[in-house]
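Morning F.,

Quick status update on the modeling queue. The single chain you submitted on Monday has been processed. Sequence for confirmation:
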Amino acid sequence: MSTNYSFFDLTFEKIFSDENQKRIERATLWLSIIGFIIHLILIYSKKFNLFHTPFEARLLEDPISAIYTPFSIILVYEIYLLIVFLPRSFTTAVSKQFEIISLIIIRRIFGDIPKVELNVNWFEFAANRQLIYDLAGVLILYFLIYLFNQRREKLPKKALNERLKRFVSSKRAVSLVLLPVLIFTSIYSATSWFIELFFNTQNFSELKDINAVFYNEFFTILILADVFILLLSFQYTERYSQLIRNTGFVICTILIRLSFATTGLTNVLLILSSVLFGLLILRIYQAIEKQH
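Structure tokens below.
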């Protein structure tokens, strides 16, 4: 077993080395800039009737929508970081999940700004209400994530004994499996959406929301990965408080996943409930730990 664990550790450190992380960070920066410029070019090209789309292209109507593209690229980088952080601790991984969902909402705001109508009663128009929900949601979410990270930093650092090293190695193996699965899923989701967009031009109402493309599948896979890590943790800890904390964090991921099946205020409330639930779980866990 020790040979397998050392193999996972060496492979993980090679694939997710600091040098590779810096390369991906630089690539993300350049791709974000290039994507932003290309999106702007497409917007102004459509504005001057240089080309036409056979479908409704809200993201090509307003220059503000161009911010949607770099945010999408940054989100992919954040998902990569989540895979890197997954073996560190449940708390660190769930914190990164909260940051990702907050960025998804911010990206949605830029994508939905062209839908806002200024010449109507503000609260009578659904897109206007959604903007208010998202803006308020991001502010509350940002504050809750701050409180969660503040609590997370107060957790005592544990010494790496042999049992904990084996657990970390197991989680690294999960990360190594997760990386190609998520790469394949992202390519498949994006390709399926584009095919549906160009070849299903008569049923736009059935077209999948672009804000949910890939992320439905991503959080589903993440739930499965979290559950698998939770089952692995049973081998290395018997403490009730730790098991409940880890199970609670899996529930946080499930609530985020459920949010993609909803819209409007319900969507924002589910996301906020996920972070609030995680914060309460962490707070109770720390209170229990102080008694031991």
